[in-house]
Design brief:
The protein has about 170 residues and is an alpha+beta fold. It has five helices and five strands; from the N terminus they run ααββαβααββ. It is globular, with a radius of gyration of 25 Å.
């Protein structure tokens, strides 16, 4: 009886004849992920060497801003004085808006190992700000407020130097 009713209704409504499962258990079987989804599979591990020289391995997730991760795990010599730069036109997004003022302090300065620096996008605003503040101690200098954590950054090596006046 029910089958006959559904067949008659499928002639009236196109969604019923489109092959969508009619029972809820069939629908949930089609969207169930294969295997278990683990949080540990999503973690991006960062190796940070502060001024003291002891390597710290800290976890992060894709989409986080590097300065927030470093502040969360109390890495010395990292500050967020300017709040991460321009909130309206952020420099961490590519392409960068020409009207962005970029970061205005040097509190989140880090040096990225060359292996990972080659893969990163560095905006012209950030390069100019690093030069104007005299922070071009290394060709791989970056502001951590301008770096979004991505999958390729797993096991990335960062150096945090002591800043004068701290």
């Amino acid at each position: 009886m029910l089958t006959r009713t559904l067949k008659a209704a499928s002639k009236l409504h196109p969604l019923l004849s489109s092959g969508i499962p009619l029972s809820s258990s069939e629908h949930f079987d089609t969207i169930r992920p294969k295997g278990r989804v683990k949080v540990t599979d999503k973690i991006i591990w960062l190796n940070v060497i502060p001024d003291g020289g002891e390597v710290r391995r800290i976890p992060s997730f894709p989409g986080e801003v590097l300065v927030d991760v470093l502040m969360k795990y109390h890495i010395p010599n990292i500050r967020k004085d300017c709040g991460g730069g321009d909130p309206i036109f952020p420099v961490k997004d590519a392409p960068v808006d020409y009207f962005s003022s970029g970061p205005v302090c040097e509190g989140c300065h880090v040096i990225v190992h060359e292996k990972w620096f080659e893969k990163m996008y560095v905006s012209y605003i950030e390069r100019g700000r690093l030069a104007s503040l005299g922070l071009t101690t290394s060709k791989t200098s970056r502001f951590s407020c301008c770096i979004l954590i991505k999958e390729y950054m797993n096991d990335m090596l960062l150096f945090v130097q002591g800043q004068p006046g701290r």
